[in-house]
Amino acid sequence: MSETPEKSGHFKVVATVSEHPVAHGEIFMSAIPKSVRFQKGLRNLLMCFGAMCIVVFIPVVHLIAPFFFFCLGIFLFFNSYLDDVQIDHGELVCDKCHSKIAVGKKPDLFPFWVDCPSCNVSMAVKKES
Ligand SMILES: [Zn+2]
Description:
Elements: H1 4-7, E1 9-17, E2 20-31, H2 34-55, H3 65-82, E3 85-94, E4 100-102, E5 112-115, E6 122-127
Antiparallel strand pairs: 1-2, 1-6, 2-3, 3-4, 5-6
The structure holds zinc ion.
Zinc ion (ZN) binds near residues 99, 116, 118 and 119.
């Protein structure tokens, strides 16, 4: 991926609710090596293949489910393989209640959504410009 260099690193982020900033913080992102992504994708593919082998023996369900798992497996493989960055760690502080909001390890594209645990507000996290 050509975008990887600018996607990995340390970023200041701002979380907004309908374009109003409500939390600030920073995240650290790193690029995931190709081999790791491939392994992850392969694991997902094999898991779906396993599920496919099981549902084949269930009456009625076997008419559609194996095809579903086949497609899901291929989708998850590419989904994992094309996810080239991950969030190593990140934290935002809510402006309103000052509680810390941890950002999960899940690789994501900006903007992604987090919830303040105290205010129960969903906010969109973006890179601060
Ligand atoms: Zn809050």
